[in-house]
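Bug #2210: token dump truncated for Methyltransferase type 11 domain-containing protein?
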Amino acid sequence: MTNNSLEKNTADSKYSFVKYNYIERWVSFWHQIDEVVKLKPENILEIGPGNKFITGYLSNLGYDIKTLDIDEDNQPDVVGSVLELPFDDNSFDLILCSEVLEHLPFDNFMVALEQMRRVAKKYVVLSLPRWGWLFYVKIKLPFLKYKKFYFKLSGLKKHKIGGRHFWEIGKAGYPLKKIKYLIKEQKFKIIKDYLDPDSPYHHFFILEKI
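Reproduced locally. Full output below:
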């Protein structure tokens, strides 16, 4: 690779280090990997692999992982849509879908959940953007772990379609309780859901089929 092409990749690529891998995203990467490893799946489908950091890391840990993306330029294992997953029922122990569904109109949210429930054998690890004003304090005391105290104020801003997201949790019309209700309607048990104030834009849902 020439210096010119390296510079172009670094500065212009959709998944370049400068534009894509900001520090909060690394926190999100950690949580994705941590949640997957704790669930001990034998095989994984990653929907929307982005820069494939998660794919590579989990593969290096010995996991059988396949990727799906609607954009063939991202070079997934399978080109396809989350709205019509080209797999048999119960094909994967776990589906990882991080920061993907907001790129589709909200009317498609239930369809995507239904498809993931059909193809997942056991679990879905899902993250979605959560907008809001974060109030956050982190305290470190000797001999103790960090203590984090935070809350997020949301629901006051209307989402403007025109960017890359059609909707976000916390914007007017998309409260967290609505998202959780719709997830449960698709016969998922929410094992836990949370955001990490060090990556406050990504809200995680750890789901189990029931």
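Output looks complete on our side. Residues 1-12 have pLDDT under 50 and may be disordered. Marking as cannot-reproduce; reopen if the truncation happens again.
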